Amino acid sequence: MGESxxxxxxxxxxxxxFKGLKAEFKKIIWPDxxxxxxxxLAVIVISVILGLIIAVVxxxxxFGINVII
Length: 69
What we know:
Blueprint: H1 17-27, H2 33-68
């Protein structure tokens, strides 16, 4: 019961930070132009729709508060 397993606490040799960063950038899969365009358009459309919904709800609340006051 008193036995404990030794955990290897030695650190791996550090590579240069820039070499590690370069290696990580090589792993990135960049989207092609078509999918980037579609996704950007979807984000813009959804943002505009959500903005309109928020504006309508805001106007309705403002109208309701003015009626109460």
